[in-house]
Specification:
This protein is an all-alpha fold. The chain is about 80% helix and about 0% strand. It contains 20 helices and no strands. The longest helix has about 35 residues.
């Protein structure tokens, strides 16, 4: 494996007041992006199957809806190529503004779609098309957001600042739940299934406008500016992903593996179980949403302290501890569903999502530190997005298939635990990155 990048040119540091502002702007963007994604995930678990893929079999309808959920992950690599090239060649901020705008258009479009009953086969075709656009947007969002924050970070606090936008996935899910639950309670499940499921999608318009305003007010990454203003700088390649695969294949593969288990935990908990619990085990939907929300909130609560600790003792010790915890806890966490007890499920999910926070709090800085500045946007994005695609995107569909053959929540634990074991092994093969400065 090639040596990790070291500082060659000292980048201009952000003003002290700029770094927190950039971190908040990055958090706002990732929260909005993942709100949009979480709304779709929750809607696919609750209503999109019968609305767009009607059949006499509830499992088949759910499977079809989850496959459209997975479709967005297939287009994420295209987003890595597109936005990674923009971010590495033209700047981080420009890529982030475009990705957020694209996500907003696609999400609002889903809220305006006719259903199968109205438009026939055109309805699912349009749904899949908009899902693919959402995936392209997500392919460029995460890497750019964490890089903008990390490259503005003061010395010794890179993981802390990079972890702030990484709170966005859980915060976006909580925000989506805060919209969906009251809507369901007001109009009832029948009204939500009939028409009110569109409300969370349409509310994205307001969030995107706010997000675009925030993102256009922050400055470009000082590392990117320092690199482009250095005499005879080493420019980003025309096709960063191709160069990345040629020069850093081991680092890309292991970085992907390091994040794959956590992706499975996240998506099976906040997407798949919201459908599986009510449909297969008779657990009330509100119980499942509440359990997942409390667990996500607990993960958020420890994210910044864990990231700050990783700036002091290193990324790997905490990520390894989280991976071990996820391997050990995966089976008890999903076995808790058999109890059908809201308190038991909430406790199990809370512990599991806190182990996930141990893994994922330092991951933004860790993946960014694996690659040089001229390919860092593409490298960090590719590793994380590939992990999300294979570990998270297909997880609901795989879980649906597994449970159609083995009717027990234990299979979810074995499946998730196996992927977390892959992450553990990949982390053991990767070096510590805390001491490596960003090169310009």
């Amino acid at each position: 494996m090639p040596e990790l990048p070291t500082m060659t040119v000292s980048p201009q540091r952000s003003e002290k007041t700029e770094a927190p502002k950039v971190a908040v702007a990055s958090l706002v963007g990732t929260t909005i992006e993942y709100y949009d994604f979480a709304v779709y995930g929750t809607a696919s678990a609750l209503v999109l199957g019968p609305a767009f893929f009607p059949s006499g079999n509830a499992t088949l309808s759910s499977l079809a809806a989850f496959l459209t959920f997975s479709a967005a992950f297939l287009s994420r690599p295209l987003g890595v190529v597109l936005f990674g090239t923009i971010g590495d060649r033209l700047g981080r901020r420009q890529a982030l503004v475009v990705s957020l705008l694209l996500m907003g258009v696609a999400t609002v479009g889903v809220g305006l779609l006719p259903t199968y009953e109205t438009a026939g086969l055109l309805a699912p075709v349009l749904l899949v098309t908009l899902r693919l656009l959402q995936g392209v947007s997500m392919g460029g969002e995460w890497g750019g957001a964490v890089l903008l924050a990390a490259e503005h970070a003061p010395p010794g606090r890179r993981a802390l600042y990079a972890s702030i936008p990484n709170i966005g996935p859980s915060l976006g899910f909580l925000l989506s739940t805060a919209v969906i639950l009251p809507t369901m309670n007001i109009v009832g499940m029948e009204g939500f299934t009939d028409w009110a499921w569109r409300i969370p999608f349409l509310l994205s318009t307001v969030l995107v406008v706010v997000g675009l305003w925030v993102r256009t007010t922050v400055s470009e990454s000082p590392v990117f500016k320092a690199r482009t203003h250095t005499p005879q700088p080493e420019s980003a390649p025309r096709f960063p992903l191709g160069t990345l695969v040629k020069q850093y294949p081991g680092r890309l593969l292991l970085g992907t593996g390091a994040a794959i288990g956590g992706s499975a935990v996240y998506y099976l908990t906040i997407v798949y179980s919201l459908s599986y619990g009510p449909q297969e085990l008779g657990i009330p939907r509100n119980t499942m949403l509440t359990a997942a929300s409390i667990g996500a909130a607990a993960g958020i609560a420890i994210t910044l302290p864990v990231a700050r600790l990783s700036d002091r003792i290193g990324r790997r010790p905490l990520m390894l501890a989280g991976a071990v915890g996820c391997v050990v806890w995966a089976i008890p966490m999903y076995a808790s569903l058999s109890s059908r007890n809201g308190l038991v499920i909430t406790g199990a999910y809370t512990v599991g999502l806190m182990f996930l926070a141990l893994m994922f709090s330092p991951v933004a800085a860790f993946l960014a530190e694996l690659f040089p500045a001229r390919m860092r946007y593409t490298g960090a994005s590719a590793a994380f997005i590939l992990a999300n695609t294979f570990g998270g995107g297909f997880a609901p569909s795989v879980a649906t298939w597994l449970n159609s053959h083995w009717e027990s929540p234990l299979v979810l634990g074995f499946y998730t635990g196996g992927l977390c074991l892959v992450s553990l092994l990949c982390l053991l093969a990767l070096p510590e990155t805390r001491e490596h400065e960003f090169d310009a």
